[in-house]
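Protocol step 4 of 6: structure prediction from sequence.
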Amino acid sequence: MRKLSIAIDGPAGAGKSSVSKILAGRLHYAYLDTGAMYRAVTYEVLTRKVEGEESIISMTEKLDMEVQPGEAGMEVFVDGKNVTPFIRTPEVSSKVSAVSAIGGVRKAMVVIQRKQAEKGGIVLDGRDIGTTVLPKADVKIFLTASVHTRALRRFKEITEVHPEMTMEEVEKEISRRDYLDSHREISPLRKAEDAILLDNGDLTLEGTAEAIISICEKKFPGFDR
C-alpha cells in the first residue's frame, strides 16, 4: 500500500506540532508544519512593517518560501533566510491569527502545502488542513483538550523564554485565539465531517501519537510505514 497523508487539526495548545513531529518520526514520514509557515509570513509582516490586507497579500505572493527538515523538525526559509528562530515570539503569536485569516495569504500558502502533500508519506498540522488544505487526506484527526489544559502546556513553553508571562495571561490568549480562529471568515477552525475527534487531555504526546497510529491501522490495515 502507498504511504498515507495524515491531516491533524485543532485549536492552539492542543499539541498538534509536537505530536505531528513524533508521529512523522515513528512512521518515517515527512512533517509539514503549516502553522510555522503562517508564523513566518506574520514575522515578515512585522519585520517589514507591512500594513493593510492588500499589501500583506502582495508581499506573501512574492515570498520565496521553502521548508526543509531540521534537527528539531521543520525549518522555514524565506528568501533564503532561516526564520525559524524568530517565529514563536509573543509578538508573532498575537498577530498570526489575524494574518492567517486573510484570504489571499491562505490561498498562497495552500498552493505550497498541497504540492508537498500530494507525494504522500506526510503529516500536516494546522487549523484547516482537513477542511481546506487537504480535504482528501487519507486520515483526518481533530486534536483538542480543555482551555485550561492547553494553556498550562503553552505556559510551560512560553515561560522558558518569557518568565514574566502569567498563567492567567496565557489562558486569556488561548481563549482569544480560539475565538478568532473559529470565527474568521476564511477557512475557520472546525472539525471536518470525516475527521476523528481525539481529546488528548489525559494523554502524553507519545500516547497521542500512538493513538493516531492505531487509528491509521484500523482504517488502513498494514499501511506503508
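Step 5 (inspection) to follow. The chain is about 50% helix and 15% strand.
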